[in-house]
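User: Here's a protein and a ligand (manganese (II) ion). What would the complex look like?
Assistant: Let me lay out the input and then the predicted complex.
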Amino acid sequence: MKNDIHDKILGSYVGLAVGDALGATTEFMTPREIQVNIGVHNKITGGGWLRLKPGRVTDDTEMSLALGNSLIKSQGFNLNCIGDHYVQWMRSKPVDIGSTVRKGIRDYMLKGITVQMESEMAAGNGAAMRNLPLIIYCLKKWGYFEQMTRLQSHLTHNNKKSDLITLCFGEMTKILLETGDKLHALKIANRLIKINPKFSYSRYKGESSGYIVDTFKTVMHYFSDETSFEKILVGVVNQGGDADTNGAIAGMMAGALYGYSSIPAKWTKKIDTEVLRAIRIQCRELMDIPVRYTDEI
Ligand code: MN
Ligand code: MN
């Protein structure tokens, strides 16, 4: 089958939103609690600790859209414009916001700080969860991806593990979008694990918290073992923990591999139509913007 990159880009972005909306129901639950209360969680039903309407997405999708809108607005990469878009999002009273994200956005808003201090506390998955627009944007000129990713990440999360894994998810997603070569993508992850044996997901014990290494293991475990978009997502969100964020990242990768058409319609049709519309617009426009820093001009 032809590798239709537009179908796959849309698949990765809608996949992100679907994983977010599906996982939000089981966020902070244990696998046992999910089993007892829901059985197998495989429907977008809303609820969860945030008491969401079915199909409502959370910070993961909303921050991604904010990043994408900023790239479109400045017709390039402008760190202050990204910061402003995060501020605007925080002011919109989001349904959920992580503490590290909140601190970073507040520091930018009140003091103009664009680089957080490096910290072990910042080893959460909050930078990785929102980086997809940058992956799509940088496809044309991949040489820019690493630095742009570090810059947008360090607005809130300045941490080596977060950087390594956010970059690794990005490399893998690029390969999946461009070639659909799953083995090649897994090799990228294995290269990272060789240097950081603690990232190995072959000794995965079910950890699924918002710690970036847990996110990596959870997503990689199901991404490598399962064989469809639906199975990967169901596996991830039934681990509970940071289920919406882990689901969002798994959805991004699975959508990049299998494409939009592989996402079950029972899930896509539940997603908020405004969100779907915004995603479609970004998928189109992000491909066309020149890859450059506009704050240097
Ligand atoms: Mn969330
Ligand atoms: Mn979350």
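Summary: Residues 58-60, 96, 244-245 surround manganese (II) ion (ligand 1) (CB under 6 Å).
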